[in-house]
Amino acid sequence: MLRQIREWARAIRRDVHALWLAARDPRIPWYAKAFALAVAAYALSPIDLIPDFIPVIGYLDEVILLPLAIMLAVRMMPPDLMAEHRAAAAGAEGKPVSRAGAALIVTVWLLGAGALIWWWWPQVAR
């Protein structure tokens, strides 16, 4: 069973890299490209939308939401092009890092904090 989990994790890692490659391919439809880029950027980002230190919910995005988003993005791709990008990802040595994905997550957190302060400030200032 442990071997199957490791193989599944390798397949997920390969598919994320393949989605990263597919997002830059001009043969992919724009909507699939945009979704693939968002999923790959989030998966490769060193920052999580839901921090892991939050009990149970912290791992929800990695265990449930991210694999579902990856599967949806893979299904949006033309099968022959996805196979081509999977082969390229399997042959690649290094894992890409998404600085844009990290910047997006930091921006979402800052906007959320700003909105919370904007909502909360008038009630405190009374």
Structural descriptors:
single chain, 126 residues, mainly alpha, 5 helices, 73% helix
SSE map:
Layout: H1 2-22, H2 30-44, H3 60-76, H4 79-91, H5 99-124
Could you characterize the architecture of this molecule?
The protein is globular and about 60 Å long. The protein has one domain (2-124). The protein starts with a helix and ends with a helix. It has 126 residues and is mainly alpha-helical. The model has no long low-confidence stretch (mean pLDDT 82). It is built from 5 helices and no strands. Helix 1 (2-22) packs across helix 3, helix 2 packs antiparallel against helix 3 (60-76) and helix 2 crosses helix 5.
Biggest beta sheet attributes: none
Q: Which stretches of 5+ consecutive residues score pLDDT under 50? A: none
User: Tell me, what's the shape?
Assistant: globular
Number of alpha- plus pi-helical segments: 5
Q: What is the distance, rounded to the nearest whole angstrom, between the alpha carbons of the first and last residues?
A: 59 Å
Summarize the amount of helix as a percent range.
Answer: over 70%
- Strand portion: under 5%
Listing every helix as H and every strand as E from the N terminus to the C terminus, the arrangement reads: HHHHH
How many structurally independent domains? 1
Structural class: mainly alpha
Radius of gyration (Å)? 17 Å
Could you tell me the number of beta strands? 0
Average pLDDT, rounded to a whole number, is 82
Task: Briefly characterize the structure.
This protein is an all-alpha fold and 126 residues long.
